[in-house]
Design goal:
Largest sheet: 6 strands, mixed
Structural class: alpha/beta
Number of helices: 19
Helix content: 25-40%
Number of strands: 20
Distance between the termini: 35 Å
Strand content: 15-25%
C-alpha cells in the first residue's frame, strides 16, 4: 500500500496519529477522507461492506500478507512523532534491556526500530494496533466484560470510566436512553472493575464515610456481562468510541443484536459525538441505524453504496449535500424507501396494496419453482406523482430501481414526463412524437371536456387504442421498459382478474385469500408481467 510521504506536518502535532487521507477502490473510484469523517458503507448481502473494513486494517499492517480485495490503494497521513514521551508511557512497558513492550500485543521493539518504522511509514509486528481498531460483532460481546485489576489497564475503556466520573455519567446517560437503565462502574470490587445495570443508587444520599454502602447496593445490581447481547454490544460500542484515542475506528454492523429504535439512537450518538481527530468507518445493513446517522444532519457523514459486479465492487458515493437534500424529503425520511440501499433491486409501486399483490405473485412464482426469490424490495410512495422523487433518490446511489404504474399515468403528460425524466428518458427525443399520436387519438374520442376515453382505457389498457395509437404505444412502452418503467398493460392491477368486482383493497385480499397465486389461470398475465419486471436488468 502506498502512503503519503509528503507534508508530514510534525511541527504542530506532537502525539503520533494516523489518518486515512484517501481510498482507491477496485473500481478505481477515489474517495478523499477528512480527519473527522463518518463513512458509511451500505449494500446488499455479500456486496463487500465488511470486507472494506478488513481491507483498511490490512492496509495499515505491513506484517499481514493477506491481499486487499475491495480496496486497491490507501493513502495515509502520519502526524506527530512516535517517540513522544506520554504516548510511549501509555502504550509500552520498558524492560531491563531498554526495549519497549507494547501493552496491546505483547510485541517488543527497541526505540530505534519504532522510529524507523514511523519514518518509513511502515508498521510491523502489530504496531498498527496503536492507531486503528476494528469492532467486530463477536468482539463486542466480550469487550465490556469486567476489567481485571492485574491487567495493565490504562488503555481499557472501563479503566477510563473508572478514572473519570463525568465520563462514566455521560455514558450512563446514553445507555439509559437506549435501555431505560443506568450503567454503573463498581470501583469497590477487589479483583475486577465490573459494570452494572439497573437503577443506580442516589449518590447524594451517601456521605464519604459510608461509600461502602453505596457500592454494596451497586454490587447487588446485575452485571452488564450477564445481560443480553444487545445491551453488551451497545455498551461496548459506546465504550470503544467515546473513550477511544484511536484515530481510526472501524465498526462492523453496529446494529447487530439491537432493536430498531436502539439502532437508530446509536446512529445519532455516533454522528453527534465524533471528534475532529477521529475517523469512523462503518458497515451497516440497517435502515434504522442509517436513519439515525442522517437524522443528525451532520456535514461529515458520507454514505457509500456498494454494488458487486462479478469481481468488481462498484462504489456509489452520496455526498453530504445530496444527503441533506434527499433526507429533507418527508417521503424518504418517513418510509422504508431507505431500505432499498440494502437490496439488489427496488420495485416502486403506487400504493401498499399494489406492493402486496405484486410481491405475493413473485413469491408464489419462486416457491412453485422451489427456488429462492430474488433480493427485491417492494415499496410504495403514496401515488404516482411521488414516484419521480423515489426513483431519483435511489438512482443517485446506484440502486437498481423499477416502477410499476397504472395505465392512467399516460393521461397526465406532466406526471408521465416527470417520471420518465427520473429514469433518464429524454421525452423530447424519444417519446414526444409517439405520445402526440396517442394524445391526438384519445382527444378525438373524448366528448366535450370529460375524459371518458381515458376513463375507459384505464379499465382495458393498451387494447383500447385504435388507429395509429397502438403502434405508437408499442414504441413508447419499449422505451419505458428499457429504462425500468413498467405500465400495467391491462389498465390497472384489478384488471388482472375482472371477475372480482371489488375496490383495490378488497380485490387484493380476495385474490390472496382465495387463489393459488402460482397456478390460478386467471392470474397468468399477472405472473408474466411480474416475471418480466423481476428479470429486468438495466442496459
Amino acid at each position: 500500500m502506498s502512503t503519503n510521504l509528503e507534508d508530514i506536518r510534525t511541527p504542530t502535532i506532537e502525539k503520533p496519529q494516523v489518518f486515512i487521507k484517501s481510498i482507491k477502490f477496485n473500481d478505481d473510484k477515489q474517495l478523499p477522507i477528512s480527519y473527522n469523517s463518518v463513512i458509511v458503507f451500505t449494500g446488499a448481502n455479500n456486496s463487500g461492506k465488511s470486507q472494506v473494513l478488513r481491507d483498511v486494517e490490512t492496509g495499515l499492517d505491513e506484517s499481514n500478507s493477506l491481499p486487499t480485495i475491495v480496496i486497491k490503494d490507501i493513502e495515509y497521513d502520519f502526524l506527530g512523532t512516535i517517540d513522544q514521551a506520554t504516548f510511549l508511557r501509555e502504550h509500552f512497558n520498558v524492560n531491563q534491556q531498554g526495549d519497549y513492550k507494547m501493552f496491546e500485543s505483547g510485541q517488543t521493539f527497541n526505540k530505534s526500530s519504532l522510529q524507523i518504522y514511523w519514518q518509513n511509514r511502515t508498521f510491523y509486528n502489530n504496531l498498527h494496533m496503536l492507531f486503528i481498531k476494528r469492532l467486530s460483532t463477536e468482539g463486542r460481546l466480550t469487550s465490556s466484560n469486567a476489567l481485571k485489576r492485574d491487567y495493565h489497564p490504562e488503555q481499557n475503556p472501563i479503566y477510563k470510566l473508572y478514572q473519570s466520573e463525568s465520563l462514566a455519567q455521560k455514558l450512563s446517560d446514553y445507555f439509559r436512553q437506549a435501555f431505560g437503565s443506568d450503567l454503573i462502574v463498581n470501583r469497590n470490587d477487589m479483583q475486577t472493575v465490573p459494570l452494572h445495570t439497573g437503577q443506580a443508587p442516589d449518590k447524594t444520599a451517601f456521605t464519604i464515610l459510608n461509600q461502602d454502602e453505596y457500592y454494596n447496593q451497586v454490587t447487588k445490581l446485575p452485571k452488564l456481562q450477564e445481560q443480553g447481547d444487545g445491551m453488551r454490544s451497545f455498551a461496548s460500542i459506546l465504550l470503544d468510541t467515546f473513550t477511544s484515542e484511536y484515530s481510526i475506528t472501524l465498526i462492523d454492523e453496529p446494529e447487530a443484536f439491537l432493536h430498531p429504535p436502539q439502532a437508530r439512537l446509536l446512529g445519532k450518538m455516533l454522528a453527534n459525538n465524533n471528534p475532529d481527530n477521529r475517523q469512523l468507518l462503518i458497515s451497516t445493513h440497517s435502515e434504522d441505524f442509517l436513519q439515525g446517522l442522517l437524522d443528525t444532519n451532520s456535514k461529515n457523514v458520507t454514505v457509500i453504496r456498494i454494488n458487486r459486479d462479478s469481481n468488481i465492487n462498484r462504489m456509489s458515493v452520496l455526498q453530504n449535500d445530496k444527503i441533506k437534500k434527499l433526507w429533507g424529503n418527508p417521503i424518504l425520511r418517513y418510509s422504508n424507501i431507505l431500505s432499498g440501499l440494502f437490496h439488489e433491486k427496488v420495485i416502486v409501486c403506487e400504493s401498499d396494496y399494489d406492493c402486496l399483490f405484486y410481491q405475493a405473485i413473485m413469491d408464489a412464482i419462486y416457491e412453485h419453482k422451489n427456488e429462492i426469490a430474488p433480493d427485491i424490495l417492494f415499496t410504495h410512495c403514496g401515488g404516482k406523482t411521488r414516484i419521480k422523487d423515489v426513483v431519483s433518490a435511489l438512482k443517485a446511489v446506484n440502486v437498481s430501481v423499477v416502477a410499476i404504474c397504472d395505465f392512467d399515468l399516460l393521461n397526465s403528460k406532466q406526471n408521465f414526463e416527470a417520471i420518465t425524466n427520473s429514469f433518464g428518458i429524454d421525452w423530447n427525443v424519444t417519446l414526444s412524437e409517439d405520445m402526440k399520436i396517442i394524445y391526438d387519438s384519445m382527444n378525438a374520442k373524448n366528448s366535450g371536456a370529460n375524459n371518458a376515453a381515458w376513463n375507459q382505457i384505464k379499465k382495458i389498457g393498451k387494447a383500447g387504442f385504435s388507429g395509429n395509437a397502438p403502434a405508437a404505444y408499442e414504441k413508447v412502452e419499449a422505451v419505458c421498459k428499457s429504462e425500468g418503467l413498467f405500465v400495467v398493460p391491462l389498465g390497472e392491477m384489478e384488471c388482472f382478474d375482472k371477475t372480482v368486482n371489488k375496490e383495490k383493497k378488497d380485490w387484493v385480499y380476495h385474490v390472496l385469500e382465495n387463489y393459488d397465486l402460482a397456478t390460478e389461470a386467471k392470474l397468468e398475465e399477472a405472473r408474466k408481467f411480474v416475471q418480466e419486471i423481476v428479470d429486468y436488468k438495466p442496459l
